[in-house]
Amino acid sequence: MTVFGETTIKDLEKAGAFESLKVIPENDQEGYEEKKEPFVLKYLNVITAALFVIFGYVSQSVYGEGHVFSVLLFMASIVIGGFSLFKVGFKNLLRLQFDMKTLMTVAVIGAAIIGEWTEGAIVVILFAISEALERFSMDKARQSIRSLMDIAPKEALIRRDGQEMMIKVDEIEVGDIMIVKPGQKIAMDGVVRIGHSAVNQAAITGESVPVEKSVNDDIFAGTLNEEGLLEVEVTKRVNDTTIAKIIHLVEEAQGERAPSQAFVDKFAKYYTPAIMVVAALVAIVPPLLFQASWELWVYQGLAVLVVGCPCALVISTPVAIVTAIGNAARNGILVKGGVYLEEAGALKAIAFDKTGTLTKGKPVVTDFIRYQDQTGEEELLSIIAALEYRSQHPLASAIMTKAEQEKIPYMDIAVEKFSSITGKGIKGIVDKTEFYIGSPSLFNELMNGDLPSKVEEDVRTLQEQGKTAMIVGRSSEVLSIIAVADEVRETSQKVIKKLHDLGIKKTIMLTGDNERTANAIGEHVGVTDVQAELMPEDKLEYIKRLRSEYGNVAMVGDGVNDAPALAASTVGIAMGGAGTDTALETADVALMGDDLTKLPYTVKLSRKALNIIKQNITFSLGIKLVALLLVIPGWLTLWIAILADMGATLLVTLNGLRLLRVKDK
Residue limits of the P-type ATPase A domain (predicted)? Predict the structure, then answer.
């Protein structure tokens, strides 16, 4: 909440008392611990209303339908379960705003007037359950912002006036020197003044391979220092760091996105006033113009309201939605609400984050090129793994994994005089021979710029394919090149093709990686468009641009850096297994098994659900139309009205259950 002008927390809470708002200053969230309300207390009104309905049915079977005790139980259920509904419904009626809540309010009052308490209570309880689900998803959205706030540490080791001390991030000033040890998370944005390390920036930029950092390089809060000790000069206050910006972007994107309107709500805007006008005309016109009986035609008018009561309409959507969401859950897809299921069926464009979504998010060895045969492949790989085992380099794990997969022993190999060559590589002596592993620039120096042209060509080719190439050799000769890259998921290409076959016009890959790597991967997986070197705010802007162009846009991602874009898209889809909590909570749909192949199935299921909702609405309206035509000869009785409504309700329920048969092939 942004407050303009002077006020107190007490006044703000007083102003928000109708929603029981709790306000905490943004820079004072340390001491605030949210009280967890027990489930029963949180949804007490829904549970109580449901119990009253059950007691009402029991009473009905014991004392009969019109018994005063049964009526009182149903009345209590309507008042308790529908209190918030009626509050909005009456307000809307006074303002002549017609939506589902207005129609529900009028229909329930109509049902009460003509003694149809059972029907009124059932409609109210269904509505209360859907409201509770909506509130639950809003709570989840708030949690996503809270979990973002926990990414960067709350304090840091600072050197001031020759003394080192732990200081809270709020008290750190621009210009302070922050000391970050290996394995620690970085608390503030800054510039490296002393030291060299590899920093895992995946949380902020989405780059899968840790980035080498040395003097004068920028560092972001919330990233992980993996190797060496760094002394960093703080360049931003805690509220201006990149992670703080991401939090604000998520908050703004969640607030800016107009709540998607469910299909039934859009429909109710026109249906509600129409049915109310028809009911009023049926009650008034015959007595006024044709001297007919007021009693008969007011009864007919109320019967029209019962026929018009959206029971089948109200049920048609939740039954289809709940069935589809249940089916999706069984197939490892978590959909956070009916609206998102409907929106997923209308998608025109889908944007993908690269790292951890189209790719696996973990570096692996992709190429091992040897240039001479004196040292066998297995022997050479065991030497490389033995050296990397002693290194703290982030890519070392990929080489060790390769050796383990091929069952090549390396831990027992004796390495003498092992040392790290800052920013360039490592060296060590094995069997009285000195070996170097490092970047092409290291070997250029060792060989006085006389790197063999074949090696240079291979390095260039590997780099063009988006791979990190490391040279292995002695001071005067190159023995091999080992290339490491973030591996593309085997399924990515197939998924993109399936989406294109389903009629998704545009698939875009968004990444913080360099353009060369991005284009190589984009071309391989078959997306229609590639956007590289993006920061979180750039991804957000791009999603907004896509929305203005295509209307319905999904974003698929797995990291903190994707959270703003996930929040701003029409449907945010998070990768579940590898996805961070923030991505999962900001997203509207989560692919729980970290399985991208579930995406085309989600789109297919959503479209099927949307079709069934439309069929249900058409069908329930058709039955109502037939019943309304019985008004003309005056044949519409209340039991026909109820039968028409209950019959429609039953049929739309059975139709909705067909969604259980949609399989993930």
Answer: 152-251
Rounded to an integer, what distance in angstroms lies between the CA atom of residue 537 and that of residue 567?
Answer: 12
User: 74-92: per-residue pLDDT in tens?
Assistant: 899 989 988 888 888 888 8
- CA–CA separation, 422 vs 134, rounded Å? 54
Residue type, 477: E
Percent of the chain past pLDDT 70, that is, above it, reads: 82
- What tokens were used for 226? 């993996």
CB 351 within 8 A of CB 505: no
The rounded Cα 443 to chain-centroid distance in angstroms is 45
pLDDT, average across residues 420-424 = 73
CB contact burial 252-285 (16+ within 10 A = b; e otherwise): ebbeeeeebebbbeebbeebbbebbebbeebbee
The model's confidence at residue 512, banded by pLDDT at 50, 70 and 90, is confident
In angstroms, the CA 602 to CA 498 distance is 12
Both tokens of residue 486?
Answer: 């973030």
Q: How many angstroms separate the CA atoms of 582 and 562, rounded?
A: 9
> Residues 35, 37, 38, 41: is their CA dihedral positive or negative?
positive
Active site residue 529: no
Can you tell me the distance from the alpha carbon of 184 to that of 201, in angstroms, rounded to the nearest whole number?
13
Domains of the chain: 39-145+251-322+608-661 (no CATH), 155-240 (2.70.150.10), 333-358+489-594 (3.40.50.1000), 360-487 (3.40.1110.10)
* pLDDT for residue 258: 46
What contacts 435, CB < 8 A, 6 or more positions away? 383, 384, 387, 427, 428, 429, 472, 473, 474, 479
| List of residues 6+ apart from 320 with CB closer than 8 A | 609, 612, 613, 616, 655, 656, 659
User: Given phi > 0 = left and psi -120 to 50 = alpha, else beta, which region is 467?
Assistant: beta
**Conformational region of residue 449, where left means phi above 0, alpha means psi within -120 to 50, and beta covers everything else:** left
φ, ψ of residue 428 to 5 degrees: the values are -170, 160
